[in-house]
Amino acid sequence: MLVKPAKAAVTRQLLIVSRSERERYAYLQYVFDSETGDVILDRRVQERRRRDEPASAERRRGDRRQRDITTDLQVFGWALARRAI
Question: Exposed, middle or buried, 5 (CB in 10 Å: 0-12/13-18/19+)?
């Protein structure tokens, strides 16, 4: 009797490039294979929103960001994140 291996989870890579590194963004977009991941510019403008009054009921199960990439963007100009599909 043959046993089928469990289906492996597919993980795509997301390469986030600092907005100040437009040339690097163009180069990485050219080089990076879109089948394994995507290259995007950092879209964050400022820190996350803060409210003075408490939120009514939290609908999200938790913070969607798994790690802070701010330091990587400042030091290297890019950061690599994984996302499961």
Answer: exposed
